[in-house]
Design a protein that fits this description.
- The protein has about 170 residues and is of the alpha+beta class.
- Among the domains are: about 55-90; about 95-165, no CATH class.
- About 55% of the residues lie in helices and about 20% in strands.
- It is built from four helices and five strands; from the N terminus they run αααβββββα.
- The protein has helices spanning about 1-10, 10-50, 55-90, 155-165; strands at about 95-100, 110-115, 125-130, 135-145, 145.
- A hairpin with a 4-residue loop joins strand 3 and strand 4 (about 135-145).
- The protein is rod-shaped, with a radius of gyration of 41 Å.
């Protein structure tokens, strides 16, 4: 034991230097950990807000439930967006109107032809011909931009304008 104590006395300076070096290293480590804790603290406060009195397991379960609900809602929103997109393809998107006088004795452009088309350029051309004696209405189907029946000049004009609206040109 005496040999050990005399060896300690002889190496006291070295032991003190090693102890000081360890203290410096520990202080640096504590400073780095403090910096990390300060960086994480705002995030932790955000996670545990409105959850005072809960255990860590309860907080985790609450956050997990919120994440699951958000995932369900996102899936529902995606489904609704897909349904709206599907429905939009068959809704009226291209409309054009051409007014004219079918009967020269009547002014005011009382007759008209209108084209009503969807995204696929399908729909109908609706024509109303007005005269003093009667008013006639005709509907002609259009599929893929092509009419299934012969079109009058005004009907053709309305169809071309509606097709142009879908291609960036201006319609009536």
């Amino acid at each position: 034991m005496n040999a050990f104590l005399s060896a300690l006395e002889q190496e006291a300076g070295l032991i003190a230097a090693v102890a000081c070096a360890l203290c410096v290293c520990l202080l640096i480590w504590v400073a780095l950990l403090t910096r990390r804790v300060r960086a994480v603290t705002p995030h932790m406060r955000h996670l545990v807000r409105d959850m005072q009195g809960m255990s860590a397991a309860e907080m985790f379960e609450a956050h997990l439930a919120n994440a699951e609900m958000a995932t369900r809602r996102a899936a529902e929103a995606t489904g609704l967006a897909e349904e709206l997109s599907r429905r939009q393809r068959t809704s009226l998107q291209k409309v054009a109107l051409v007014k004219y006088n079918a009967d020269e004795s009547i002014g005011g452009n009382m007759s008209f032809s209108t084209a009503l088309l969807d995204e696929t350029d399908s729909g109908l051309v609706l024509t109303s011909i007005y005269s003093l004696e009667e008013c006639r209405v005709y509907a002609k189907q259009v599929v893929g931009g092509e009419p299934e029946q012969q079109l009058s000049q005004e009907e053709r004009q309305a169809l071309e304008q509606a097709l142009g609206v879908g291609r960036g040109a201006q319609g009536a």
